[in-house]
């Protein structure tokens, strides 16, 4: 079975996980179905720029979006933005659609939305590759901060 930097990183951390390989999906709902998880358990990994050369990962459930006011309050900063696809690639070594905190070129702080729980599906470092892992292990392995930083996605 082919491996990815992300899978190698998860192995090195000693996590209990399952790799799921799927074809392309047209929606978050379809991706969750293919991965065998609820939509809220499909985790989007977003890179956020706090300032020049200062980034972090924010892990967002599939049915939610970043609430910028909550995230700014939590981090105690006034401005932040999403980097360009090229900038995110330079920082993480992953192209958009494959970004994951596991095996990132640059180790970044991680914030996981407080609504995340149970077994979740996070990117596996390549298109169509995901890793199903328990939230408790995910938080510990990434030394992540859990905080209420999202709002429900508009329907």
Which helices and strands occur, and which strands form pairs?
Elements: H1 5-13, E1 17-21, H2 28-35, E2 43-51, E3 54-61, E4 64-66, H3 68-75, H4 85-92, E5 110-113, E6 119-123, E7 129-134, H5 135-142, E8 145-147, E9 150-152
Parallel strand pairs: 3-5, 5-8
Antiparallel strand pairs: 1-7, 2-3, 4-9, 6-7
Which consecutive residue ranges, at least 5 long each, have pLDDT under 50? none
How many whole angstroms does the radius of gyration measure? 14 Å
Residues in helix, %: 25-40%
Number of strands: 9
Lateral arrangement of strands in the main beta sheet: 2-3-5-8
Number of domains: 1
Distance between the termini: 38 Å
Order of helices and strands: HEHEEEHHEEEHEE
The chain-level mean pLDDT equals: 95
Quaternary structure annotation: single chain
CATH topology term: YbaK protein
Q: Which structural class fits the helix and strand makeup? A: alpha/beta
What does this structure look like?
By secondary structure, the chain is α/β, with parallel strands linked by helices. It contains five helices and nine strands. It has one domain (5-152): YbaK protein. Strands 2-3-5-8 form a four-stranded mixed sheet, with no helix packed on it. A three-stranded antiparallel sheet has the order 1-7-6. The protein is globular and about 40 Å long. The chain starts with a helix and ends with a strand. The mean pLDDT is 95.
């Amino acid at each position: 079975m082919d491996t990815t930097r992300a899978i190698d990183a998860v192995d090195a951390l000693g996590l209990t996980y399952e790799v799921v390989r799927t074809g392309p999906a047209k929606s978050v709902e379809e991706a969750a179905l293919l991965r065998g998880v609820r939509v809220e358990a499909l985790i989007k990994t977003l890179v956020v720029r706090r300032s020049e050369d200062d980034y972090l990962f924010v892990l967002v459930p599939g049915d939610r979006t970043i609430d910028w006011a909550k995230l700014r309050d939590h981090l105690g900063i006034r401005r932040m933005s999403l980097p360009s696809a090229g900038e995110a690639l330079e920082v993480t070594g992953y192209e958009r659609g494959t970004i994951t905190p596991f095996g990132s070129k640059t180790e970044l702080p991680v914030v996981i939305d407080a609504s995340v729980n149970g077994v979740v599906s996070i990117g596996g470092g390549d298109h169509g590759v995901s890793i199903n892992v328990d939230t408790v292990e995910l938080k510990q392995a990434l030394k992540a901060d859990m905080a209420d930083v999202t709002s429900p996605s508009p329907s």
